[in-house]
Structures are given as C-alpha cells and as structure tokens.
Amino acid sequence: MTTSLPVPPALSRRGLLKFSLGASAFLATAGLGASLAGCSAQSPAHGFIALRQNDLAIVQALIPVVLAGTEAADSGAALLHRLDNKLAALSPAMLKLTRQLFDVLAMALTRGPLTGIWGSWDNASSAQIQAFLQRWQDSSLNLLRMGHASLLQLLHMAWYELPESWAHCGYPGPPKV
After folding, report:
1. pLDDT tens digits for 97-111?
2. Which DSSP string do the residues of 101-128 spell out, in sequence order?
3. Using an 8 Å Cβ cutoff, are 153 and 168 in contact?
C-alpha cells in the first residue's frame, strides 16, 4: 500500500509574502547599488533641473505610449520641462525615491528582468513598453504597482498642466481675472 501526501498549493500566502519581501529587497538593493556604484549620473541633464540623461531616455520612450491619443508628441520639449519642474518641486525624499525608480529602469541588470525590455529604451517598441506597463500594473508585487502608478501620475500631471492639453479634455482654461 502506497501512501501519498496531499499536494501543497503552488504558492501559499506565506510563500507569496516571502517572495514579495525578497523582490522588494532585490529592487531596493539594485536601486541603492546603482546609486552607490555611480551607474547613474546624479547631475541633471543639460537644460534641466532634476531630470538626468538616463531619465530623459526613459521618459521619452514612455510619453508616446502613456499619452497615446493626445498631442503630447507635438509638445515634447514643453512636456519634458514641465515634468522636470514637477520633479524639482518634490521633497528630497520623494525625489530620491523617484530617482531610484528611474535607476532601476535604466540599469540593464534590472531593466530586462523587471520590464521585459532587454535593450535600450531608445530601441524599445511601443508594444514592448505597453507590455511592460501592463505587467507592472497587474503585478502581484505592490512595489511594481506603485512604480507603475508613479510613472503614469508624473506624466499625466505634467501633460495636463500644459495649455495644449486643456482643449483635449474639454477644460476651457482658468478664468480670466
């Protein structure tokens, strides 16, 4: 007579918590490692207050996908500067967290496994970027969902502050005083 044990579930609640904790630690370590190793320049790109050169490549790849259906592509420089002003207005702690997010997205070691974009952001297709955003939005890891929300909120806030976006959403503009 053979005795068989019941098959445990593939991923228990405890297993999910351990996995989430490990993934969070990995992301935090990767971001910190990139900052400490000097993988990312801490100085802003030429003509910007907070956005760095690596950040610009990421944001310029995200804009056409996140703001598809708007005239955001036509106001690229204005949108980048509006986003730069938003980042510069963040508290030092929030700016540090945002930079860590950009560092994780910029480092090839973390970008590939976390986003599915194995090459540079300049060569990423719209379909790859859309898949990355969907992957993070639907992730079981709260950290990735928060990263997704942060990226979208930053880009949307910068876009909807521009007068060019007001007609698109039916806003007549601020009242004349």
Report:
1. 999 999 999 998 999
2. HHHHHH-HHHHHHHHS--S-GGG--HHH
3. no
What is the chain's percent helix, strand, coil content, to nearest 5? Answer: 70, 0, 30
* 90-119 burial: b if 16+ Cβ within 10 Å, else e: eeeeeeebbbbbbbbbbbeebbeebbebee
**Residue showing tokens 């310029």:** 60
Quickly count: other Cβ atoms within 10 Å of residue 68's Cβ.
Answer: 11
Query: What was the pLDDT predicted at 76?
Result: 76
Is 19 within the bounds of a domain?
yes
Q: How many domains does the chain have?
A: 1
What domain range includes position 156? 15-169
